[in-house]
Amino acid sequence: MMRKIYFLLLIVFLVACNSDKIMLFDVDAENSAALRFVNADMGTDLSGNALRGENDTTQTVTFVVRKETYLIDTINLIVTTSGPVLNKERVFAIEQVVEYPKFTYLYDEHNNVVDSVIDAVAGVHYRPLDDPYTASFLRIPAGETQSVVPILLLRSKDLQERPYRLKLRLVPNENFAVDFDAPSKVRIINFSDIPSMPLYWEKDAVWFFGRYSATKLRFMVNYSDIDLSGSNLLNYGAADFTYYQKRLQKALMEYNATQLTPLKDETGRTMVFQYELN
């Protein structure tokens, strides 16, 4: 008889281990549930660097590679639970951590300026966390262990002057605990609308697109169908660059036809899409 009982227990154990979720509905166990952020594979940035690793807490976002009509960008934060999976919906909380309400320079041990920072403002730089749309995702559905929370970044004009920082952290409540010493409780999003020369430009594009300028980059975004939001151009060959060079030359010619003078960049140089000797 005892052998049969052990055999049945073994079967139950093996089935549980092979299940994606072990359903536990213990009132006391609810208090042991905890939250943490996890990272998805975000691919690579314009320089070909991995955007996110499992332990990364910071993400950098730019509106520069988006057309001028693109006014909101969505950053999805993945929140997962540890502990029991319950058959009821559980609300959780995220809050902004404000550490630099004013523009602040950061210094190294030798008193040299190494960076600057200012915190984003809810309603100006991002949709508030208590906005009905965002708040509707601050919950773990019944029988689930994960939620994807969309953080809506707003393309305000001052993003063209300096980057802003949005630091978010998970907050404990009646449903979940949070390990305040763990990096998985915090996510930082740095975002701006300030052009900078991508790595692919000095590597290959300079031979086909000419001298880099912020004005030229914005023109490429707004008046062509080149996708500059990823690292595709790092893998382009001469044929690809030639194809887009001709399309850009055509777009520039059509644009100039509607203006009194040819388009110039921020340095006063007439814009061209071809190799420039100086």
Give a verbal description of the structure.
By secondary structure, the chain is α+β, with helices and mostly antiparallel strands. The protein is about 20% helix and about 20% strand. It has five helices and eleven strands. It has helices at about 1-15, 130-135, 200-210, 215-225, 240-255, and strands at about 35-40, 60, 70-80, 90, 95, 105, 115, 140, 145-155, 165-170, 185-190. The strands form four sheets. The chain has a four-stranded mixed beta sheet, with no helix packed on it. Strands 1-3-9 form a three-stranded antiparallel beta sheet, with no helix packed on it. Strand 6 and strand 7 (about 115) form a beta hairpin. The longest helix is centred in the C-terminal third of the chain and has 19 residues, at about 240-255. The chain starts with a helix and ends in a 22-residue tail after the last helix. About 15% of the residues are buried. The model is unreliable at about 5-30 and about 40-50 (pLDDT under 50).
